[in-house]
Amino acid sequence: MKAVYAAFFRLEKSREIEVGALGKIQFPEGIYVYVGSAMNSVEKRLERHFSRTENKHWHIDYFSAVAQPIDYFILPENSSYECVLSETANAIGEPVDSFGSSDCECKTHLYRIKNR
């Protein structure tokens, strides 16, 4: 299924994580949301995000290898809504610059959800 999704993760303690070409990034503890899209098989994409894959391809692979998966939701929409969902997440989160957004004009697709 083609879809746009948001995947939620918990980082139990602050950590520095090597994120591929982005290098080392300091992540404060907290709840994070990652916004993504899948041109087919969103189920397999989320399964990958929620497992500890050895073959790291995307930025989220590095983060999800350390963070605990919590939950996700799927919107069966085309990928053009990925950036709209990312902009919405920006309203409630602190952006992790350049994370997962190399194929669009968004600043990021990963946000630490602010405490409320």
UniProtKB/TrEMBL annotation:
Q: Which residues form a coiled coil?
A: none
Q: Which PANTHER family match?
A: ENDONUCLEASE III
- InterPro entries assigned: DUF123, GIY-YIG_endonuc
The UniProt entry, under CDD domains, shows: GIY-YIG_COG1833
Q: Which residues form the GIY-YIG domain?
A: 19-114
- Protein name (database record): Uri superfamily endonuclease
Q: Which domain of life is it from?
A: Archaea
**What GO molecular function annotation could you give as one example from this UniProt entry?**
endonuclease activity
| Species for this entry | Candidatus Nanohalococcus occultus
One Pfam family name is: DUF123
Question: Keywords, A to Z?
Answer: Endonuclease, Hydrolase, Nuclease
